[in-house]
Every structure is written in C-alpha cells, then in structure tokens.
Amino acid sequence: MPFDFMKKPEAPIQTAPSIDRSVLLNAAQKKQIEAAKLRKAGDRISTVILPVLTIGIALGIWEAVSRVMPGGLPGPSQIWADSQELILNPFFDRGGVDKGLFWHVLTSLSRVGIGFSLAAVCGVLLGAFIGTVGWARKGFDPIFQVLRTVPPLAWLPISLAMLREAQPSALFVIFITSIWPIVINTAVGVRNIPQDYINVARVLRLHPIEFFFKIMLPAATPHIFTGLRIGIGMSWLAIVASEMLLGGVGIGFFIWDQYNSSRMSDIIVALAWVGLVGFALDRLVAGLGNIVSRGTAAD
Amino acid sequence: MKPQLSLENVFVDFERDGVISSVLDNVSLTVNSGEYISIIGHSGCGKSTLLNVVAGLVPLTLGAALLDNKEITGPGPDRAVVFQNHSLLPWMTVYENVRLAVDKIFGGKETMSQLHRRAMRNLELVKMDHAAKKRPSEISGGMKQRVGIARALAMEPKVLLLDEPFGALDALTRGHLQDTVMELHARINATVMMITHDVDEAVLLADKVVMMTNGPKATIGKVIDVRCPRPRSRLTAYDDPEFMRCRQEIVSFLEAHDRVKTPEPI
After folding, report:
1. What 3-state class would DSSP assign to B146?
2. What angle do CA A84, A89, A91 make, to 5 degrees?
3. What residue of B is the nearest CA neighbor of A295?
4. Which of A15, A120, A219, B218 would be a feasible disulfide site paired with A193, CB 3.0-4.6 Å?
5. Rounded to an integer, what distance in angstroms lies between the CA atom of residue B160 and that of residue B79?
6. pLDDT > 90? residue A224
7. What residues of chain A have any CB closer than 8 angstroms to a CB in chain B?
8. Which residues, in sequence order, are CB contacts of B178 under 8 Å at separation 6+?
9. Which phi and psi (to 5°) does residue A199 adopt?
10. Please, what is the Cα angle at A283 between A281 and A284, to 5 degrees?
C-alpha cells in the first residue's frame, strides 16, 4: 500500500500549545520589526531603481551635450531616429553582409565558441601538466607570464602570415589570447590540491587517468573556472578587434563597415550589443562555474 | 600469533631547504595479526611519520618495513588509512566516496549490484547508511570520520592505520567513535595501528601501547601490553586496576619526556 501523506498519525503527539509569537511582542518590538521589513524592501527597490536612475541621468547628459555641440557624437534621440530598424529588428537578412545585428553577433559568437573551446581543452590539459610537473612549471611559467600580456591584435599579423586566411586567423587569435589565463589558473588550482586528496589517491592506487578525472579536475574546478572566465572575456575582446581587420560577417566587421559609411548611430547600437553580449558571456561562464563547482569547496 | 607487520631499524630523514633533519631514529616494532596498537607521544615527535612509513606515503631512509614478510615500497589498499581530517572528497556524496574505494579494489571482480551492496554494507557498519546521498559538507565532523572509517574498511585492508582519527572531535562524539572502532575491531579482527595523544584513548582501545620519545631523532621509548579483558567499556575502565596501571605508566613516561628538545638559537 502506498504511503498516504494525508493520513493522520494514530495518536496525536503531545506538544506544548503553540503560542502566536506576535502576542508576546510589545509595541516597540513590533515597530522595530516593521522598520526592518521596510529597510529590506527599500534595499530591494534601490538595487533596481538606482541603476535605472543613473542610466537615465547619463542618457540625459549625453542628449544635452549632443544638442549643445551638434556634429559630434549623435545623442540618444538621434540614434533612435537613425537606427530604429537596426534596434527593433535584429533578425533581418538581405543577403551579403547586410544583415541584422543578431546574425553578426551570432557569427562572432560561433568564432568565439570554436576558438575558446579549443583554448579551454588545451589550456586545462597544459595547465594540469604544468601544475603537476615541477620542472615544467619552472621552465614554462616565465614564458606564459610574458605571452599573456601580448595584446590580442598583436597576434593577428603572425596568424595571418601563418594561416593565410581570415577565418582560421580569427580563430587562432581567440585561441592564443584566451589560453594563457586558463593555463595559468589551472596550474595554480592543480598545484593547490590538498595533500590529503593526493594521499587518498595514492592509497587507492588510482591510475593517472582516474586521478585526473576523479581528483584533479574536480579539486581544481574553482580555479579552472576563474581562468575560463578571464579567458572568455579576452576572446570577446579579441574577436571584435580582429574582425575589424579581417572583414566578412561579424560584429567587429559591422562596426568597421558602419564607420566607413559614417553611420555613427549604428556603431553605437552595435557597441551596446557588444557590451551586453560580453556581459552575458561572463555571467554564463560564472554561472556554469557555480553549478559545476557546487560542493567542491572543502569545508 | 605471527608478526604481520614489522619495522626493522627504521630511520627517516627529511630534507628542507638543504638542511637534513632526522625524524625517526632506529625504530623497530612488530605487530601481530589482529592486534590493536596505539602509538602515543608528544606533538611533533614523529608519530605520524611512523604511520606514514607503514602506509608507504613516506619513504624510509634506512632499515625496512615489512608486511607479511614483503617489503613496503609504496602506498596500497592493503594498508588503508583513516586520515586525521577525514579527507573525504567534497565533490562526491558519502556513498560515492566509499564506492570510489570499492570500485577501485573490487571493480573488476564483482558485478555492479555486488559493488553497491559492498559499499552500503560498509556504511551500515559505521551506521552511516542513512546519509549515503549527503555530501561531506552536510554532515558533522564525527559523521565524516565514520565515513572515512567506512571507506578504509571497504578496502578490506590487512592493516588499518588510524592517524589521530578522533583528534578533531568533541569529547562526546569521540567517545561514541571509540566504541564504534572497538566494536569493529572485535568483529572484523583487523590489525590496527592508531596514532593518538590521548592517554585514556590509547589504553582503552589497544592491546599494546607504544610510547615515543621526543623528536627530532625520535624512537620508541617503551612498549607496554594492556591486559584488560575485552569487551571494554569507557564507563568501567577506571575501575580496572590494570587500566589504571597502564595509564599511570604512560603518564609518567610522557611526564619524563615533557621537554621538547629544540636546539637553542645562537
């Protein structure tokens, strides 16, 4: 017979009669509780209202400046007038490069997706190697520290010379700029695996591959995701910059193209997209990290 | 009784920043099969190093450590360790922690359902089967240590090594776990080597108490047999003159070796 949730227990359990707590409170205490509730509600409202307010003020100032000094940057109302279609319909596709911003962003994102995934896999493996093998760390660390400071665009001429085509060059630039933070952070995470976990693995005689998947990866997960988060930010930086030079479809190229046709309003709309997508990517990786590394922190 | 575990003239040196320090100096010890020995000494005297030599986690500089007449050359599941701070893997559930050990030792030889039953049986032994699906962060310190013991027992080791297993626990929990360990020892008759710095604990649980002198260059100062009849009870232990005699001997040994020899800075 299935368990019946509605069934009353056979004998009622004797407990002290429940007392409504509010009866025991005096007026002053009630007031205090009310005040605390109000403060909490105020906090919640202010986290929404304040950003809206600051954005509104900033837009207002911008608008005012653009009216006082015409001919410079277009103000918000001008942008709305110029680029209404671009803002409202990101999905149009008239063939060639005349597409909605959604398609440009999608192309850029797919490049980031491929380049960054490669960087993530190679970076974690390389980082695990560097973190485990003492001489490798000493030998490679200075090189990585130098390479990671090279700006994304500086890689572009080399990658073009090497690969000769736009698409693989863009991927290479993403790969090479985002791999270093992943390698370095993974190595730190692997090096900081508590000796206890390593001892457990030694007593159990875990195979190196078992050790990698069952101990090393989960133990280093928080560090790995720190690296991935920095890496995805850098690859977004890299793609926008490199697309400007490489051409074709993509949000970076779109910005460059609009610049050449002097459509400032479109550029500003595209910038907003770049910022929002970059923010979303960062949140995505951070959120993924939180889910994956849940429970990995030692108590 | 045949000696199962023997240490013969074991020396262990550690090197740090080019300075070699001798931790263990000529330690010889034999442990019979099924025997429970406690190793007691002041902090930093090399008790844990001695246990780690048996575990194979620390290489010895000179001498030999033998298990069933075979030299110990590295760590292995025939010498399961219960670490002081439980060392459960926090990303795995309680069950998965035990299952990791079960799968590793018996994985190729048994079916999935046998492996599952084996893991659950070991959790039942330490009365932790009810928390099988919980993560280590969701259970108390005493419970974690129970799971640590279950994981070690699941390997069906020849020797169970306990490295101050109750050190981080409150007195009440500690007492409960001591009872559990005594019960398990009586039931599975394993050889146990336990590090402790608690005199009562050392006597209550052990057949033999090994006292270590202070490090550096620590060695075995004295070994006494505890002839209290089993099963023993924490409640009546103090009424047993044999218990009090052992306790007295250990306390006076520890008193005599009170001062830790640290070289005076020049």
Report:
1. helix
2. 150
3. B91
4. A219
5. 6
6. yes
7. 194, 196-197, 199-200, 202-206, 210, 214-215, 218-219, 221, 295-299
8. B166, B201, B204, B205, B234
9. -65, -40
10. 60
- Mind giving me the DSSP string for chain A? ----TTPPPSSPPP-PPP--HHHH--HHHHHHHHHHHHHHHHHHHHHHHHHHHHHHHHHHHHHHHHHHSTTSSPPHHHHHHHHHHHHH-TT-B-STT-B-HHHHHHHHHHHHHHHHHHHHHHHHHHHHHHHH-HHHHHHHHHHHHHHTTS-GGGHHHHHHHHH-SHHHHHHHHHHHHHHHHHHHHHHHHHHTS-HHHHHHHHHTT--HHHHIIIIIHHHHHHHHHHHHHHHHHHHHHHHHHHHHHH-SSSHHHHHHHHHHTT-HHHHHHHHHHHHHHHHHHHHHHHHHHHHHTTTTS--
Chain-centroid distance of CA A22 in Å reads 46
The mean pLDDT value of chain B amounts to 88
CB contact under 8 A, B75 and A199: yes
Distance from CA of B66 to the nearest CA of A (A): 17
- Distance CA(A129)–CA(B46), nearest Å, equals 33
> Nearest CA to CA, how far is B149 from chain A (Å)?
13
Q: Which residue of B has its CA nearest to A299?
A: B137
Of A203, A210, A218, the CB nearest to B91: A218
- Span A33-91, pLDDT tens digits: 888 888 888 888 888 888 899 999 999 999 999 888 877 788 888 888 888 888 888 88
Report phi then psi at B163, rounded to 5.
Answer: -100, 95
Q: What's the CA gap between B3 and B67, in Å, rounded?
A: 9
Token pair in block for residue B210: 């090994």
Cβ distance of A200 and B87 shorter than 8 Å: yes
B80/A196 Cβ within 8 A:
no
**Closest Cα of chain A to B246: distance in Å?**
33
CB-CB contact of A83 with A266 (8 Å): yes
Note the pLDDT tens digit of each residue in B72-96. 999 999 999 998 888 899 999 999 9
Per-residue pLDDT tens digits for B25-77: 889 999 999 999 999 988 878 888 999 999 999 999 999 999 998 999 999 99
- Strands B3-16, B19-32: parallel, antiparallel or unpaired by DSSP? antiparallel
B96: nearest CA in chain A? Answer: A214
ipTM of this complex prediction, to 2 decimal places: 0.86
> What is the least distance, in Å, from the CA of A142 to any CA of chain B?
23
